[in-house]
Amino acid sequence: MKRSIKALTLEEFSEAMGNLGQPKYRAAQVFRWIYEKRKDRFEDMSDLPAPLREILNEEFSITRLETVRTIGSKDTTQKFLFELHDGQSVESVLIPASPALYGDAADRRTLCISTQVGCAYGCKFCASGLDGWKRNLDASEIVEQILAAERISGEKVNNLVFMGMGEPLANFDNFMQALRIINAPWGVGIGARRITVSTSGLVPQIRKLADEPMQIRLAISLHGATDEVRDRIMPVNKKYPLQELLEACTYFSSKKKQKVTFEYILINEINDGLDQATALVKHARLLNVKVNLIPYNSVEGLPWKRPSITRQDAFHDILKRQGIQATIRREKGHDIAAACGQLRLQNLKDKDLQSDQACIN
Ligand code: SAH
Ligand code: SF4
User: Which ligand 1 atom minimizes the distance to the CA of 302?
Assistant: First the structure.
């Protein structure tokens, strides 16, 4: 079996080169071809001796993700559906700068990426979990989503959110390995403060992440402010109830000295009542978190709906009036979560549709 080079750190690859009797500096040379010049064939690495290129070809593969579908255009959100080597598919979403959304950075280009095919956590409202969990992505498949999105769009990604398909913290080792490659100057080179991981609330892994040295940001898919509501819509809450989750968040923010974000989808008549707003205020104040309110996107086959604008505003107002830092993500096309598993689901449904028919890019 050839080793996938995009799943290796520079240190690991240098060691592998050493074991092949090659000078270690060659490793950095190869990585520059891959991550700076974006070449995917050893043949193209013109400053490597021909015998070395042959050895590399025998020992390593440089895998690429191929797109099945691209939806969207340059100045709007672009969604990419990628086919993996075993025929499974995952999606990534590129969201252009939105000063209204982020305030500080008009040049922000955010990529939302996946870490698993499907998801085992089965939140009742989510398209990703509908079909169950298929498999973990390896580190190269996580890293490649960024390189592929840049290749296709011609844009440079400078902000990354792990909010695509899957539960990143349930694929902890591959996720961490990918992070090392994404964050490193010899790799993709995205600063840790510009990387956010979202979790539905895997308490032990949140604590483990807090103990890692990297200054990555954390978002919690809260979606309910009491055990009663979370139990009903997020089965993970039965395993790690709210109080344990909140304590893990406190641990994370004290270790990292940074604010955690609560993601809170507003689902009509499910979690958008006064009692939930009041409980959310209490948690948000105690933990000093930011709250992102996200009007729910309907998923075909699921009964949930987004609340009316009036109800959304009423919920938001309660938070604001109580001094909680809360935003509501409302702009069309900027709804990161809209992508969560939905493109893949759609593709599974109409498999026989020609891919270029759907591509309007
Ligand atoms: N599994 C992780 C990472 C996925 S993030 C997690 O749940 O945090 C994807 C985000 O989109 C999560 O906050 C998820 O709850 C939210 N989401 C899922 N389905 C959605 C929908 N139909 N509309 C709006 N948000 C949704
Ligand atoms: Fe999985 Fe997150 Fe969707 Fe829940 S919300 S099913 S954890 S992807």
Answer: 22
Q: For residue 235, how far is its CA from the centre of ligand 2 (angstroms)?
A: 10
Q: What is the pLDDT of residues 27-39, one digit of tens each?
A: 999 999 999 999 9
54 is catalytic: no
Query: Cα 229 to the chain's mean position, in Å?
Result: 25
Strand order from edge to edge, sheet including 66-71: 66-71, 78-83, 89-95, 110-112, 159-162, 195-199, 217-221, 261-266, 290-295, 326-328
Q: The tokens of 19 are what? A: 């074991």
Query: Rounded CA gap, 267 and 282, in Å?
Result: 20
Mutation test residue for ligand 1: of 265, 271, 306, the one with most atoms within 8 Å of CB: 265
Residue 341, number of CB atoms within 10 A of its CB: 24
Is 126 part of the annotated catalytic residue set? no
Q: Which ligand 1 atom is the nearest neighbour of the CA of 220?
A: 8
Pocket-forming residues, ligand 1, beta carbon under 6 Å: 119, 123, 125-126, 163, 167, 198-200, 221, 223, 263, 265, 294, 296-297, 299, 337, 340
The answer to whether the predicted template modeling score (pTM) of the entire model surpasses 0.85 is yes
Residues 103-116: what's their mean pLDDT?
Answer: 81
Q: In the chain, which ranges are continuous DSSP H helix?
A: 10-19, 25-31, 50-59, 99-102, 139-153, 172-183, 203-211, 227-233, 236-239, 242-256, 274-287, 309-321, 342-349, 355-358
Active-site residue, from 15, 91, 112, 155: 91
Q: State whether residue 133 is helix, strand or coil.
A: strand
User: Is pLDDT at 360 greater than 70 in this prediction?
Assistant: no
pLDDT of residue 357 exceeding 60? no
Q: Which of 126, 150, 340, 359 is catalytic?
A: 340
Stated as kind and residue range, the H or E segment containing 65 is none
Q: Which residue's CA is the closest to the ligand 1 atom numbered 20?
A: 126
Backbone conformation region of residue 189, classed left if phi is above 0, alpha if psi is from -120 to 50, else beta: left
